[in-house]
Recover the amino acids of this structure.
């Protein structure tokens, strides 16, 4: 069953703690993406990666970090430097950069 | 800078009404254009896409979109909406980096 897995579905953290969101795909896609979805603001790109061991900042990368050590995995760390981390986070992948994207179910992060 | 604008943030229609959602983009090069849909409680999924060729593209569930290069537009249309079309719709440019519009929430009244 091919697709994109994001875990957990809901995540709660205390202010000041770093938290890592998981994203795994078994579609053999080269490109992966992280978005933040807030009401009325659409999807805003945090980071994207076109190939293993390479990634680029998106529009709102401040306070976030990523790694791409394996083709199938693209974890996102929300650091304590992110001023407003409570949001819905979506991971996506595509065969290569610029292609149709396939989305995961998302992780809703709440920072208390 | 690249951008995607969706003009309607919230649209309410009755069943069988016609739908047109506006999308304009700002980008200097060749673009791939997409419409994605997010049904309540479901993943974002592709509705239709334009890469090249016929500027009128057809997607799933009777949706279509027309690419008008001179107007930098890629509007989404459906002749007759159903209650099951209630969802949020996003226009996107898959240049690198990709850009999404702010979304349009469509509410179809039965």
């Amino acid at each position: 069953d091919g697709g994109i897995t994001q875990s957990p579905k809901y995540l709660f953290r205390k202010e000041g703690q770093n938290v890592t969101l998981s994203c795994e795909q078994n579609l053999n896609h080269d490109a992966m993406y992280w978005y933040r979805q807030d009401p009325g603001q659409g999807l805003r790109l945090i980071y994207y990666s076109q190939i293993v061991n390479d990634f680029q900042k998106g529009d709102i990368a401040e306070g976030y970090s990523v790694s791409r050590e394996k083709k199938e995995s693209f974890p996102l760390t929300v650091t304590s430097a992110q001023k407003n981390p409570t949001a819905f986070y979506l991971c996506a992948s595509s065969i290569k950069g610029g292609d149709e994207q396939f989305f995961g179910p998302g992780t809703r992060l709440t920072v208390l | 800078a690249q951008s995607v604008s969706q003009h309607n943030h919230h649209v309410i229609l009755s069943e069988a009404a016609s739908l047109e959602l506006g999308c304009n983009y700002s980008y200097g090069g060749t673009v791939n254009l997409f419409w994605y849909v997010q049904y309540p409680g479901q993943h974002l999924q592709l509705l239709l896409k334009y890469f090249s060729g016929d500027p009128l593209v057809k997607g799933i569930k009777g949706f279509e979109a027309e690419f008008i290069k001179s107007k930098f537009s890629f509007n989404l249309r459906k002749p007759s909406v159903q209650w099951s079309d209630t969802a949020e719709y996003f226009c996107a440019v898959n240049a690198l980096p990709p850009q999404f519009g702010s979304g349009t929430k469509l509410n179809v009244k039965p």
Remarks:
- The two ends of chain A are 35 Å apart (CA to CA).
